[in-house]
Every structure is written in structure tokens, then in C-alpha cells.
Amino acid sequence: MEAAADQATTGGARRERGGRNARREQRAHAGQGPGRPYIIRNIPTYDILSEENLTRIETTADRILAEIGIEFRDDPAALDHWRRAGARVDGVRVTFEPGLLREVLKTAPSTFTQHARNPDKTVLIGGDAVVFAPSYGSPFVMDLDQGRRYGTIEDFRNFIKLGQASPWLHHSGGTICEPVDLPVNKRHLEMVYSHIRYSDRPFMGSVTAEERAEDSIEMCRMLFGAPFVEENCVILGNLNVNSPLVWDGTMTRVLRAYARANQGTVIVPFILGGAMGPVTNAGAIAQSLAETMAGCALAQLERPGAPVIFGNFLSSMSLRSGSPTFGTPEPAIGSMVIGQLARRLGLPLRCSGNFTTSKLPDAQAMTEATMSMLAAIHCGANFILHSAGFLDGLLSMSYEKFVMDTDLCGALHSYLGGVVVDDNQLALDAFREVGPGSHFFGCQHTMANYQTAFWDSETADNDPFEKWEAAGADDAAGRANKLWKKRLAEFEAPPLDAGVDAALRDFIARKDAAMEDAWY
Amino acid sequence: MEAAADQATTGGARRERGGRNARREQRAHAGQGPGRPYIIRNIPTYDILSEENLTRIETTADRILAEIGIEFRDDPAALDHWRRAGARVDGVRVTFEPGLLREVLKTAPSTFTQHARNPDKTVLIGGDAVVFAPSYGSPFVMDLDQGRRYGTIEDFRNFIKLGQASPWLHHSGGTICEPVDLPVNKRHLEMVYSHIRYSDRPFMGSVTAEERAEDSIEMCRMLFGAPFVEENCVILGNLNVNSPLVWDGTMTRVLRAYARANQGTVIVPFILGGAMGPVTNAGAIAQSLAETMAGCALAQLERPGAPVIFGNFLSSMSLRSGSPTFGTPEPAIGSMVIGQLARRLGLPLRCSGNFTTSKLPDAQAMTEATMSMLAAIHCGANFILHSAGFLDGLLSMSYEKFVMDTDLCGALHSYLGGVVVDDNQLALDAFREVGPGSHFFGCQHTMANYQTAFWDSETADNDPFEKWEAAGADDAAGRANKLWKKRLAEFEAPPLDAGVDAALRDFIARKDAAMEDAWY
Questions:
Q1: Which of A300, B98, B166, B263 is geometrically suited to a Cys-Cys bond with B62, CB 3.0 to 4.6 A?
Q2: Interface contact B95, partner A, CB < 8 A
Q3: From CA B3, how far away is CA A431, in angstroms rounded?
């Protein structure tokens, strides 16, 4: 345990933007190949609104907070925090003078490091860093062979393994699917253990009850050593607002548990426009801002300096059927505004991911996923949950789509590399060598650059029609089906210290013995 | 004929950027619904390179033009133009002092109007306008029922009808597929006639020989009246550079024919990095700039003020197999730079489209298409050829993908609408009405806005899993298959003046009688 702690790298949650640590980490990882633990973007964010319009949205959020307020239910300690901070508390309704939350948020770090048990997989969150994590929270899993069924702990482990096997994800995620074959009150133990056992990347802990969050953090203490955890972020909790304008006590107690332990929280309003928020984009964005600011500020009141991520989960609805829709243009373009607002607050940002409502890993799935994912890329998201596997409006984790999505994540590594302008890239000598009417296949410049020039997809078929047809005329889903089976068959778990492993198993056995199974 | 000419709207090819005509047209069409004839973008372009790096690329293009030059083969009149303009002509090789082409390009309009036979379908090209046109040039067609086969004039007409039936395209395109059942030397007559007969939108003419371009323009004179055509752009020709750095005589003769008649040309280098250009993005972009500037300038020398579109067709290769790849990240991000360069030149821009190498309308097809198409949207493309149907690296026009792509074009109408910030969109009253913990389904603000709030896809399935399964568990390609058949079955051609129709048929009959069929 101490050995793991000693190997870990730079410091914890401090306001680091532009600081020496952040710059050092960026230099260390910029431009690395597939082995780099995260991306440093080399393209600017895509800012679509004027300062004036951003201010109008912020003013609307301030008025929502001051005139309507947010309910904090079943958590008296949260209300005490707000009273002490100078907010007005009336029953469970809290209203905030404009500027109050922004003042509280000044202690929140603009970038922070989340440590992995393998220090080479430690990630930077915030600034120009981009971290891809798999999808989160589906009750079902599906593949082309067996169709849709409830997820199990075996599926859960399979997805951790598929994630770990992909060089294009940076984070092991959290509740990748619900393992419904395990009791509700003990699931978190096996989930956290599985992340530790089958991945050496950073991961997320339980958020379904305060004691489960505490268990998740305790298991990290066994892995990293308690003193290291006290000073460094090693686990994240993903907290949903009960939009509109309600924070439930379960969520705020968990939020405070992570913050109290100096661990990271992702604050995520869940707004389907027309249901949990207004049907218009600007209003839903203002609401999202208000709800996120309140959650991030509560973490700061629990422990100033605790790492927080400015999250959102905006989507639209089919106003014909009332069904939620994902990967549609309005939330995609709305993400750009969310990104601008997060940067004005100076907080790390979480946005969208490979969203879709399709029930199959088909053309609809990847149209929607690509639009949604590119929005996260363009808006400047730092932590992109739901980067792989999302199907059927988050009801299913798809084995095939997981493979397609990680391939898209790979393409986005090249995309985020931007267009480099230097003498080698400008290639004037190559034009001199080749001249008009010839070709560049074998020229010196091509030979020197071809291995790194272009993204090389593992799932796309670029062969001539005849060759593709002779090979079986498979579609992308069929190829992905073969790939995930191959990767699982070839998987080797990263080595884990036997003492840590035994301590974790012992902890789980004691917890298991101490509690009756609960199934709901 | 004169009636059609009288109905046509504003003036032809003049330097209009920021001018009264452009602004008037923009106001007239901004924010219109599905019936608008083109889009006015309400989001900024996505500019990724600094002025300094753009200048380095421009300087490299200037050096390519000055030190290596471009060959203009089999067209002495083109060489005469260059000599008179002050370029150095050595055999067929032409070199250009830095600044020469930019000086010639000063007469090119930054925006122009392409007239449709139905004045309500007339489009603006350049500035903030965005025009979607179907894919162009495939020898094969395919659908899920019959698979891949050579295209026929019936397929060609079918695609015109499917385009005309979609509210999300703005232009009828050109050689949507090759009608290989017609003689090579007569195809263009039936193609131009079919655009006129089955669409009332603007379209493109033949580029395979000078006399076929002349025929295309002559048929427009019969439709719009010769005096109108002399003053206004009513047809476009799409001209490919024989990259690297060669303009073939067939292309420059056709280019000059369109320009001479005051008609529009789209100047398109075709560069697969590593084959027809360097394997590095910055160099391929510099080459594309050099080749496009030369083509656009030649049009200006033939007739100063002739409308030109700054085109490009950048893509990558699989360096494992040598196969071309489309919809990959490098050309997508490279498009952003192309957009910045076109704006610095002040020319309308054509970029990418729904590119893919997939052989099926599957997940690969739409991953690649969406990445490519969004690049065209973000980079500020004004005329987006290949917006619908592109499959198998442009070898096939797909009936199903045509439907999927036009649906994506519809989504992009909403995307380009951006985030509007006004009191209604900010929805403060809705928050007052609903308050914390309730929902927005039936509130006054939702009822007033829901019909226009969200893009309503015709091909996406947003139903719950059980409902989707009970309805047959179709994938997106299956739904698209049903949709194209329904649209063809319901198609009604827009009315065409019987006199014009008879004149066109008579022209074709006379041409047909005067030529032997040629099949290659």
C-alpha cells in the first residue's frame, strides 16, 4: 500500500490553472502516442455566444437562484452550510443573493489530478486536458448474439476489461452497468473491487448511499494509503440533481462524503427540455448553471478546495411521443454554451458523450453519438463520461457499440491534435521532389511520415468493395462483435499487489457478513 | 421562357459581400422554416489556426506556385491568359510571382446568387449562407433490396426526385450518379433535362467536354431566356484539378466555357494525402490553396466577375492498404483551416459532405459521414456537395443513405440556428410557474414553444424498447428503405411550362440525331 502511495505523482486539489504542476504535466503528456494517460487538446474551444448573451444567461441563473431557489431535502447539515454561508433558508427552500455562490466557488480548483493505482495512468482534469470514461448507469446490457438482458457482475467486469484493453479510454468509469445479480446494498463493494482488480486506471465510486460512498473511499485508502487519500484525489462520485431545482438528501450526503474526504464530485443536473426544464435551450442552460453552481458550492462549504467538476446532462424530447431523445442538435449546440459558462467559472467541465436513443449499434446510433461526442470535444469538456457503450437512451450498455465508440475516441485523439504547422508538415521539399502530375506514394517525405500521419481505425472497413464482399460483407456491428470477443479472450489483468488484493477481499467479506442482503 | 426570366429575383455576379443585396436576401430568408431555400448560419465559424500559422500556409502555397508551378495541359488559350496576366509560361508549366493570383482574384464575387427556375428556390452562395446539394459522380447505385449495380437514368431521376422531396436539401446537384445505360456523349442532355423536369431547384451541368458544358448552358438559356443567363448565374460546373499541380485541358476548357457564359464554377483539387499530395495536413492544405487559386483566377481571366467557388476535396489514405479513407479526423480538422483560408481570400467555400468508405448504410457510414459533415458546417462551407447518398468512397449512391443523410441535413438546420438568447428562450416565467420538483410538460411556456423547440427526425427511432421491438425491431437502414420507397411512390414533379419542355425535348432530339452514340 505504501509502495503504491510512494509511486504516485504530483499534488492534489489546489487551484492549479496555469500553475507549474499543471504545465509540467501537460508537457509530460502532450503529443504522446496511444500510451498517454489523457489528451491535451491542440485545438481551441468553439465559443458560439457573445459575452453579452453569456451574461444574460448568467443573470437568468442568478435570478432563478435568488427568486425561486433550490430545495435541499432530507439533509439538515446541507441547510446548516447554507445558513452559515449567508443564503436564505426557508424550510428546505434555499435562495441565494447574486454573487454568493460565485464567491463560495473561489476555493474550487480549476484543474486537479485524479490518481490511478498505476501512476502512468494518473489523469489531469481541467484546463486543456480531455479524459474519456465509459458510459454509466445502464440496467441492461446487450450484444448481437443474446440481445438485451439485465446486466450482471460478469458483464460489469467484461466492460472494465474492454475499457482497460482500449488505448483510447483514460478512465475506468463507475457504474458501467448495474450488476443486478448482486444485492443492492453490496453491489458497490464488488464494483469498486472490480475497477481496482481489472483496471489500473482512475475510477468512480458509489453514490447510492452515504455509507456506500464511505466504503468506496475506504477501499481507496487500502489501495493508496490513508495519508495519500487525505491529500490527493483518487476517486470521483457522480451526483445527479433531481431537476428542476431539487437536491435530494441522498445525493447531498454522498456529495458531502466525497468532499469531506477531499475526493472529487461531478455535479450533474439531468434536464430533458420540456420535462425537467424548459423546452427552450437558453432557459435549460440557465437552469443547469444554477443547479451545478449550487452543488459545486456545497462541496466547497463541506471542504474548501475539494475537487469538483461542472457537469450537465442536457437533452431534448420527442414532443410527438414524450420520449427522451439523445444526440440531437439542440443539446449539441447548447453544449458549446455550457462550455463557455464553465470556463467563465474556472471549473473543469463534463459534457455529453456518445449519446443515442437507438436500440441497435446501427446508423442512427452513430449519427447521434458522433454529433453528441463532437459537441463535447468542441465545447471543451475535460471529463467525458458516457464515451463508450451508451445505447437506448442509457438503458443499455452495448458490447458492440462500446467497441465502435472507443474507436471513435481514438479518432478524436487525432482530431484534438489539430493541424500542426511546421516545416515538416508544410512539406515544401516533397513538392520539389514530386513535382506536377506525379504521386507522393514512395517519396521521402511520405516514407518519413506515413506511420503517424493518419488515424488508423480498427473497426472501419476501407477495403475495395470486392475484397470486402469476398471477406463476408460484414457491417460495422458485425466487425465490432468479433472484436469485443477477441479482446475479452486476450485480456490479461494488470498486476495487483497480493497484499492489497487480500485486504480488499477481507474488507468485502466482513462487510458482507455484517449486512443482510437487500434487493431493492 | 421570358415569364420565367421575369420571375427571377436579384442580380448576378457582383462583389456583394456586405452589400445591400446580400443583406436583403439574408434578412428575407433568415429564420424561415422548412420552406426556406437555403440556411443562414446563426453560429460562428470555428477558426482553429492563428494568423501567423495561416500566413505560413499561404506563404507555402505562394512558394509552390512561384518555385514549382502548375501545368496547364492541352489548352493554349489558358496559357495565353497566363502570359497576358504576367505569369511565367515555360512549355505547359506556369509559375506565378507571389501576389499575382490574389490580384487577379479581386474581381471574383464573395457572394453570388444561383437562380432556380422556381424563384422561391433561388439560393445565395457565400457569406453566411449554407446550401446542401446531393452527392456527385458515383458509377454505382445501391439499395438493400438489389445490392450494388451500375447506375441508370432511372436511378438518376429517382435521386433527383428524392432530393426534391426532401425539405432539407437546397440544390438538385449534378451527376448524382452516372447513367451508364446512356451513351457517354449524350448523357449530359438527359441529365440536365431531368434536373429541370423533376426539380425546381438550382442544379449543375456537364463538365466532361467543352461542347457538353455549352449544351448544358444552352438548355438553361431555353429555360431562363438568353439575356437573363448572360447577366445571372443559373448553372454551376464542378471542375477537378488533376492533383498534384496539373490542370487538364478538358477541365480548363470547360471552366472557361462556364466563366465565359457568366456561369459558376466550383474549383476542386482532389487530394488524397500520401497519393496526390503530401501525407501531412498542412502541406496538403497549402497545395489545395495553390491549385484552387489558380483555377479561380483562370475563370476571372476568362471573364472578370464570373462566379467561382473555392473548393477542396481533401482526404486521407489507409497507409496499411493504400485504400482511400473518408470521414476521418485529419481531413475533418483540416477543413477548418481551408475555411479560414477561403474567408481570407473572400471567396465562397465548398467543403466535404457526408463522406464514408463504408459499403453499407451502417454505423461506420454514419460515424464517418457525421464527422465529415459537421466539419463542413463548422468550417463555414457555403456549398456542400455530397450532402446526401455518398457511400463506398463515392463509388456508390445509396438509396438508404440518401434518406439518412437528408435527415442529418435537417438536424443541421437546427444546429446552425444556434442558441437564441431572448426573454422567451430564457423562460424565467416558466421557472416561476413550475418551481422546484415539478415538471414542465404542460406549462404555458412549453405549450407555446414545443412545436418548434426540437428537431424532429424522420428516420430516428425514439420509442421505448418494447414498442420498437413490437413494431419489428427495425434498424435505421430498414426504416430508410421504407422511406425512400414511400417518397418515390408519392412523388409529384413540379409543374414545368409545356413550351419550355417541348423546346428542351426538341433540342435533345436534334442533338441526338446529329451524333453517333459513343460508349466510352
A1: B98
A2: no
A3: 53
Nearest chain B residue to A462, by CA: B357
Tens of pLDDT, residues B234-266:
999 999 999 999 999 999 999 999 999 999 999
* Average pLDDT for B71-75: 98
pLDDT band for position B24 (cuts 50, 70, 90): very low
Residues 6+ apart with CB under 8 A from A52: none
pLDDT of residue A8: 31
Report CB contact under 8 Å: B440, A278.
Answer: yes
The 3 state secondary structure assigned to A261-301 is: CCCEEEEEEEEEECCCECCCHHHHHHHHHHHHHHHHHHHHH
Buried (b) or exposed (e) across A323-346, using 16+ Cβ within 10 A? bbbbbbbbbbbbbbbbbbbbbebb
All three cell numbers of A31, joined, read 503529443
Asked if the Cβ–Cβ distance from A330 to B441 is below 8 Å, we say no
pLDDT at B3: 33
Mean pLDDT score of chain A: 93
Whether the per-residue pLDDT at A16 is higher than 70: the answer is: no
Residue B226's contacts (CB-CB under 8 Å, 6 or more residues apart) are none
Model pTM score: 0.94
Whole-number Å distance between alpha carbons of B193 and B197: 6
C-alpha cell at B303: 471573364
CA nearest neighbour of B390 among B404, B379, B377: B404
For residue A329, the chain B residues in CB contact (below 8 A) are 411-412, 414-415, 455
Q: Does A463 touch chain B (CB under 8 A)?
A: yes
pLDDT in tens, A176-204: 999 999 999 999 999 999 999 999 999 99
Concatenated DSSP letters for B415-477? HHT----SHHHH-HHHHHHH-TT---TTSHHHHHHHHHHS---SS---S-HHHHHHTT---HH
CB contact under 8 A, B279 and A434: no
Q: Please give the radius of gyration of chain B, using alpha carbons only, rounded to the nearest integer.
A: 23
Instruction: Please give the grid coordinates belonging to residue A87.
Output: 443564503
Nearest alpha-carbon partner for A240 in A215, A275, A276, A274: A276
Does 3.20.20.480 match the CATH number of domain B2-44+106-417?
yes
* Contact (Cβ atoms closer than 8 angstroms) between residue A350 and residue A268: yes
CA distance to partner chain A, nearest, from residue B312 (Å): 16
Say whether residue B368 is in contact with chain A using an 8 A CB cutoff: yes
Quick: pLDDT tens for A235-262.
Answer: 999 999 999 999 999 999 999 999 999 9
Cα angle value A284/A289/A293 (rounded, 5°): 150
Q: Which of A405, A431, A438 to mutate to test the interface with B (most CBs of B within 10 A)?
A: A431
Has residue B350 got a pLDDT over 80? yes
Taking alpha carbons only, the member of B381, B382, B351, B357 closest to residue B369 is B357
- Cβ proximity of A135 and A176 under 8 Å: yes
- CB < 8 Å from B in window 413-442 of A: 414-415, 417-422, 424-428, 430-432, 434-441
DSSP A340: H
**Strands B246-247, B70-72: pairing kind:** parallel
Q: Which of A65, A289, A426 to mutate to test the interface with B (most CBs of B within 10 A)?
A: A426
Contacts of A68 in chain B (CB under 8 A): 431-432, 435-436
Of A67, A281, A436, the CB nearest to B71: A436
* pLDDT-above-70 percentage for chain A: 93
Under DSSP, the state recorded for A517 is -
Q: B38 and B131 in contact (C-beta within 8 Å)?
A: yes
